[in-house]
Specification:
Blueprint (H helix, E strand, L loop, with lengths): L10 H11 L9 E3 L9 H16 L4 E5 L9 H13 L9 E2 L4 H13 L3 E4 L3 H6 L18 H13 L8 E4 L14 E5 L13 E3 L1 H12 L3 E5 L6 H12 L11 E5 L11 H9 L14 H7 L3 H11 L10 H15 L2 E2 L1 E2 L2 E6 L8 E6 L9 E6 L2 E5 L19 E4 L4 E9 L5 E8 L17 E2 L2 E2 L4 E8 L25 E9 L16 E4 L3 E5 L9 E6 L4 H6 L1
The protein binds adenosine-5'-triphosphate and magnesium ion.
Length: 569
């Protein structure tokens, strides 16, 4: 599946179409995805990526990747690299080279000087706390700073000295001079620059003043010629400020451009049982609640990848949830549904037994091996078939046996028959227990006339079990994941901190898994090279990247039971 081959159009397409009809921007469409490199991307970012790159592709104009790197204390090249990797893995390519707001620092500084010269910006010597305390409330106007009416000359001098490093962190800031009584709080003389003496991951120690996001962002879009700046709803109230900055600058340009970036807002993704704030995700990583940003329980793109999600399933999810103007909460079961649907079609089936009990087929000759044919995926003939070794001693799931089972238990019990999938019907004759009453061996006989796929195998029994030949199977480790949070809305719980809502059983490690010998060559149909499988009757699993040749680890992506499909009915 190609990115966006199933794309649903949304209200943003309609807006862009109407701009194109009016021949705005000369018919061009250029979008951007502007992450701050202060963490790894999560599933909410994936929604934004699918939207922005999807629009760029749909209108054949492309999309810029721009790192909004205006806060050196929180940003790092590790994050830059992970973001690039994740965007590519999701199936998207940005125009040219990635862009960085830090590339525009000089230009932004020059424009700030222009604003000062026009009397539209001033240096304020008050502390951040004092400035905040003067902000007012939505109904009460703010208080003007005593430094608000400094002369242009004094402001120019101070701003230059800020840049030269003559002041300590927090000693002064540059503010826009707009309106302390505006009904829009963002227009009450917002900060434009602050002093941060810190090493920046790209500009090193060239700068000790850094532009605020609100000042840098709109100008960054303008510099790049972005036609449509798509962002989440919380930025709607910032829009007048972006327009104010840009208009003040544009008035001074020799030639005023015909079109400027148009901001369109959409509702962010909220998922139940998940936290999505980067601050909280960082805390989970730093305080070792998870094993890293790509821990398979994390809602990060790298976590989902390691968990076994495909890029196609995430794009499908983004398409399913759609783009709206109103906030809502999406059920994480929909995300799980999307990966099941994809893997059902593409993942080869293999036999693995997670919690084994030994079965001895007493009438099967010792030392003999019979190779059984098994198709790789009933959903896709082209995936062909493989052979499975069948022998006298096999493992089945401990759960698939029950002593004195009720009539409706269509699995194994003494005196009952079941089919071993792709092999024979066997009848359980006896069991052996240890001193604790735990079953150690199950004794069966097989019916040689019931080989799967052969004439004479027509005889039907209720219940089919998966199995592996003990001698031929390989032992692997399996990590089974459950939701990271027990609470449906860990972000919104008023009584408890999100850390108290972590699911203590979100990871269980199984060291007793035995898998059929073929899995390594099972023809995996995944372009990203990650091997994913359906363990028959158990769920979807993928090989973890930390696996070694003789020490293979599987991650459980999802179980087979689809709670989403059920909900829809
Ligand atoms: P923070 O959690 O620190 O507020 P952020 O998640 O907004 O940060 P950015 O790096 O600023 O991080 O995000 C990059 C882009 O991804 C932004 O344009 C933002 O609109 C979008 N984005 C972030 N979270 C979501 C979400 N949950 N749903 C949709 N888009 C999102
Ligand atoms: Mg943000």
């Amino acid at each position: 599946m190609e990115p966006n081959d199933t794309i649903k159009t949304n209200f943003i397409h309609q807006e862009i179409d109407s701009d194109l009809n009016e021949n705005k921007n000369g018919g061009a469409v250029l979008t951007r995805f502007p992450p701050e490199p202060n963490g790894y991307l999560h599933i909410g970012h994936a929604k934004s990526i699918c939207l922005n790159f999807g629009l760029g592709k749909y209108y054949k104009g492309g999309t810029n990747l721009r790192f909004d790197d205006t806060n050196p204390t929180k940003e790092d090249t590790e994050y830059v690299d992970s973001i690039k990797e994740d965007v590519n893995w999701l199936g998207f390519e940005w125009n040219d080279e990635p862009k960085f707001t830090s590339d525009y620092f000089e230009q932004l500084y020059d424009w700030a000087v222009i604003l000062i010269k026009k009397g539209k910006a001033y240096v304020d010597d008050q502390s951040a706390e004092i400035i905040a305390s003067q902000k007012g409330t939505p109904t009460v106007p703010g208080t003007e700073s005593p430094f608000r009416n400094r002369s242009v000359e004094e402001n120019l001098d101070l701003f230059e000295r800020m840049r030269k490093g003559e002041f300590q962190n927090g000693e002064c800031v540059l503010r826009a001079k707009i309106d302390m009584a505006s009904s829009n709080m963002h227009m009450r003389d917002p900060l434009m620059y602050r002093i941060i003496h810190a090493n920046h991951h790209r500009t090193g120690n060239d700068w000790c003043i850094y532009p605020m996001y609100d000042y840098a962002h709109g100008q960054g879009d303008f510099i790049e010629g972005i036609t449509h700046s798509i962002c989440t709803l919380e930025f709607e109230v910032h829009r007048p400020l972006y327009e104010w900055f840009l208009n003040a600058i544009l008035d001074e340009l020799p030639e005023r451009p015909v079109a400027t970036p148009r901001q369109i807002e959409f509702a962010r993704l909220n998922l139940n049982y998940t936290v999505m704030s980067k601050r909280k995700l960082l805390q989970l990583v730093n305080e070792n609640y998870v094993a890293g940003w790509d821990d398979p329980r994390m809602p990060t793109v790298s976590g989902l990848r390691r968990r076994g999600y495909t890029p196609e399933s995430i794009r499908r999810f983004a398409d399913e949830i759609g783009i709206a103007k109103r906030e809502n909460i999406i059920d994480v079961a929909l995300l799980e549904h999307c990966i099941r649907e994809d893997l059902n079609k593409r993942a080869p089936r293999v036999y693995a037994v997670l919690n084994p009990v030994k079965v001895i087929i007493t009438n099967f000759p010792e030392g003999e091996v019979e190779w059984m044919e098994a198709i790789n995926n009933p959903e896709d003939e082209t995936m062909g078939s493989r052979t499975l070794p069948f022998s006298r001693e096999i493992y089945i799931e401990r759960d698939d046996f029950m002593e004195n089972a009720p009539r409706k238990f269509f699995r194994m019990d003494v005196g009952r028959e079941v089919r071993l999938k792709n092999a024979y019907i066997v009848k359980c004759e006896d069991i052996k227990k240890d001193e604790n009453g735990e079953i150690t061996e199950i004794y069966c006989t097989y019916d040689p006339d019931t080989k799967s796929g052969m004439e004479g195998s027509k005889r039907k029994v209720k219940g089919t079990l998966h199995w592996v030949s003990i001698e031929h199977s390989k032992q692997v480790q399996v990590k089974q994941y459950d939701r990271l949070f027990m609470d449906e809305a860990p972000d919104a719980n008023k009584e408890k901190d999100f850390l108290e809502l972590l699911n203590p059983d979100s990871l269980s490690v199984v060291n007793t898994c035995f898998i059929e010998p073929n899995y390594m060559d099972a023809n995996s149909k995944f372009a990203d090279g990650i091997q994913r499988f359906q363990f028959q009757r158990l769920g979807y699993f993928c090989i973890d990247k930390a696996s070694k040749e003789d020490d293979v680890i599987f991650n459980r992506t999802v179980t087979l039971k689809d709670s989403w499909s059920k909900k829809k009915k």
